[in-house]
Amino acid sequence: MAALSFELAGVDSNSKARAGVITTDHGVIQTPIFMPVGTVGSVKAVTQQQLYSEINAQIILGNTYHLYLRPGVDVLEAAGGLHHFNGWHRPILTDSGGYQVFSLAENRKITEQGVLFQSHIDGSRHLFTPESVMDIQRSIGADIIMAFDECPPYPSEYTYARKSMELTHRWLDRCFARLAETPDKYGYTQNLFPIIQGSTFPDLRRASSEYIASCNATGNAIGGLSVGEPEEMMYEYTALCCDILPADKPRYLMGVGTPWNILEGISLGVDMFDCVMPTRNGRNGMLFTTQGVVNIRNKKWATDFSVIDPSLDCETSRYYTKAYLRHLFVANEILALQIASIHNLAFYLWLVKEARLRILAGDFDSWKKNIIPVLKQRL
């Protein structure tokens, strides 16, 4: 089978926004794209059928750390990989678990070899190395797999950020070497994306971007820019990285973010995004709509019998009313979580699809500037 390929279909004349096509062995992805997060092989409160038919997700995420702990690589291998295990037969990307090791695991110890950590589930001890993380992702079988990296917190001291970046680069070399030693398990090609680090220091970001670009991977990721830094700083370093990364490879900004973050990222040259925000915020009653942000728990919606968002090509968004959804939240009905999650994901997929159409039409930049104030409105 063939390695991942990327072709540009158009570039905005007034920004660095691109429309492209990523081809994998499990299907085609039109960029820019948002990828719903299915941490343990499941996008929370959403079925695979809904991801196909209502949300029209082109690719979803899984997470190495969580899938390694549950259900475990033995189960995933017996199933024939995550695609067969969860019934999702379009592309899958797996994060390496590096961020989770540093944010969830307890009593972790970082060495040149890897990270010794304690499971957040049962306290058991585990060692993640670049080699073991590649092996786990081989067993999961995602189309795109991420390098094992260290994600420094914000803010970080310069010395720590530099040592962390250099360690990430050495680990990356070991990731590539391990993949070269081990064949794909399931008869299709897995593609490794390296990750830029360097915290919020321009020289480190530049050095890391140059190193990652030199690896000539099939795609590249920008990490460490959704960890609490101000938005303008995130945009500054995203731009810096995009200007160095090769134009003929997809660029993935990890863990970002709000609808306006995504549009600004697209304008800087990013092609791929993921974030738990649409489903997490949805489960807490925050809806993103084409007219602005809705806190559906507010009493003002109690007698609003208009549908959630008639502008979306999503049956759920155009069927249920705001009043009914508010009632479900107030009554603590599980259906509320499902409706809100489906709607928010459908909105995010609408947003990147519309951005793509605007790039191809040549008016993305003006559309972005007009729509962001609308999307930020609190209704």
UniProtKB/TrEMBL annotation:
Q: What is this protein identified as?
A: Queuine tRNA-ribosyltransferase
> Which residue ranges are recorded for the region named RNA binding?
255-261, 279-283
Question: Organism source for this protein?
Answer: Filimonas lacunae
Tell me yes or no: is DNA repair among this UniProt entry's keywords. Answer: no
Quaternary state and interactors: Homodimer. Within each dimer, one monomer is responsible for RNA recognition and catalysis, while the other monomer binds to the replacement base PreQ1.
List ligand-binding residues for substrate: 95-99, 149, 197, 224
Provide the family line: Belongs to the queuine tRNA-ribosyltransferase family.
Q: Which SUPFAM superfamilies match?
A: tRNA-guanine transglycosylase
In terms of superkingdom, the source organism counts as: Bacteria
Q: Which reaction does it catalyse?
A: 7-aminomethyl-7-carbaguanine + guanosine(34) in tRNA = 7-aminomethyl-7-carbaguanosine(34) in tRNA + guanine
User: Which part of the chain is the tRNA-guanine(15) transglycosylase-like domain?
Assistant: 15-372
A GO biological process held by the record: tRNA queuosine(34) biosynthetic process
The portions of this protein that span the membrane are none
